[in-house]
Amino acid sequence: MQRGNILVVDDNKNVLTALRILLESYFERVTLLSSPNYLHSAIRENSPDIVLLDMNFSAGINTGNEGLYWLSEIKKQDADLPVVLFTAYADIDLAVNALKQGASDFVVKPWDNARLVATLQSAYALRESRKEVKQLREKQHVLQSELNKEHDICWGVSKAMQELRHLIEKVALTDANILITGENGTGKEVIAREIYRHSSRNKEVLITVDMGAITESLFESELFGHVKGSFTDAKTDRTGKFEAANHGTLFLDEIGNLSYPLQAKILNALQSRTIVKVGDNKPIPIDIRLISATNRNLRESVRKGEFREDLLYRINTIHVEIPALRERKEDIPLLAEFFLQKYARKYHKENIRLSDEAINRLKAYRWPGNIRELQHTLEKVIILSEADVLQAGDFYFNSTAQTDIENPGTLDEAEKRLIQNSLKRNNDNLSAVAAELGITRPTLYSKMKKYHLN
User: Fold this and answer.
1) Strand boundaries in 282-332, DSSP class E
2) What pLDDT digit, counting tens, does each position of 119-149 carry?
3) Kind of pairing, strands 289-294 and 284-285?
4) CA distance linking residue 163 with residue 375, whole number of Å
């Protein structure tokens, strides 16, 4: 399959002819240039994915300095454009110098066809990988700027949340790995984004991965990437989440759901600070700040042999525990007002407000779904209400859900009961259950499998 646009720069016309014949079978477009003096305009006009550049152009000169000069000129024009250098004079020191200055590789004349093609295809794969990472970063920056505009966090007035805020502002500036724990709906991802926003890496990308939604068969491909042809559906190279997050922050949500064998792969990447793509054997260095989150008690999971102790130590330099909403009821009025204002603007009901009786009703409820449930409750009531003042009777809470939390047992047991009751209320409509619980369908499937509810 022909893919990519290659620009070949060499002053030997016989070499150019031979390369055209060879490379047209492998690349969509082959552009030939006999003089480097037209390099800048050729790059502007042809937008090549790779440049194959001779290192010597003047008769009687074979130092390779001309090639190094034009390499630097190309990098000034497009720093991400892969350049493979081409010379008849094998010189290890020259090759090392060229690689230090940004060359992707170094090929010696006379060339071996198969090796040259493989080198150029690897350079093209590098170009595509850089493009994908750049697109991810640009998309993430747009999303992040929108999130920052919303200031989508309300700390509350409780002592527990003020202490949490102080802790986060303190540790965010470091590169320490952080583990966030708390029940479903307490706002673990919101806290992770707040840590990122205050960190020294906030100009770089934040990549979020829902570990509960990744199947074991696709785990390595999703996290570490793969090369073309490494398995049946690997039709192109793919950049994994770890590589996409390089120099930025990686947020691994639901890390407690990771199977024991997969935990070892994560641990190895974190310890070596390198990843290897599926189907490749070349280690890729990674520089990330790791934030993880789970609703499970990982120390209990370690005791049961379900979670690796060494991985827990690796991800748990700083532990952030978010209290359940029922443990900080003094925050409910402020949170309710926060969501009221947000959805009043969204649905053009700026005059709407909460009565004292409504606030008391909200404070009396135990909120098994925590802040997420409060948020969805306010949005629903605002959509349905035709009055400017929300009364206590506008808020309906399912009695079963209220009972669920009276004797919760372990978090896993409480979560299982919530899912069971939601399945019953929604007649096993999984989309409705996922929406009610505030989770994705893949996460719901994972939890149903975990609790044998299939």
Assistant:
1) 284-285, 289-294, 318-321
2) 999 888 888 877 777 767 666 665 555 455 4
3) unpaired
4) 23
- Integer Cα distance of 353 and 285 in angstroms: 53
Cβ atoms 451, 411 nearer than 8 A: no
Distance CA 26, CA 1 (A): 7
Measure CA 324 to chain center: 27
Token pair recorded at residue 174 = 């470091």
Confidence of residue 405 (pLDDT cuts 50, 70, 90): very low
Q: Is the pLDDT of residue 267 over 60?
A: yes
Express each pLDDT in 30-71 by its tens digit.
999 999 999 999 999 988 999 999 888 765 566 668 888 899
Backbone angles phi, psi at 36, to 5 degrees: -75, -10
The single residue listed with the structure tokens 């999703």 is: 222
Give strand pairing partners of 226. 238, 278
> Given phi > 0 = left and psi -120 to 50 = alpha, else beta, which region is 136?
alpha
Q: Is the dihedral of CA 198, 201, 207, 209 positive or negative?
A: negative
Crossing angle of the two packed helices 13-23 and 113-150, in degrees rounded to 10: 70
CA atoms of 87 and 229, how far apart (whole Å): 31
* Closest to 239 (Cα-Cα) out of 231, 228, 229: 228
d(CA 202, CA 338): 25
Helices 65-77 and 92-100: angle between axes, nearest 10 degrees: 20
Q: Please list the alpha-helical segments (H only) found in 26-64.
A: 39-46
d(CA 237, CA 117): 17
| Half-sphere exposure (Cβ direction) of 109: Cα atoms closer than 13 Å | 19
**How wide is the angle at C-alpha 347 spanned by C-alphas 342 and 349, nearest 5°?**
85
Cα angle vertex 144, ends 140, 149, to 5°?
A: 155
Residue 285: CB partners within 8 Å, gap ≥ 6? 273, 274
Confidence grade of residue 404 (pLDDT, cut at 50, 70, 90): very low
DSSP letter string, 184-208 = TTS-HHHHHHHHHHHSTTTTS-EEE
Q: Please, which residues have CB within 8 angstroms of residue 86's CB and are 6 or more apart in sequence? A: 10, 52, 53, 54, 55, 107, 109, 111
Which residue type sits at 364? A
Using CA of residue 199, residue 205, residue 211, residue 212, what is the dihedral sign? Answer: positive
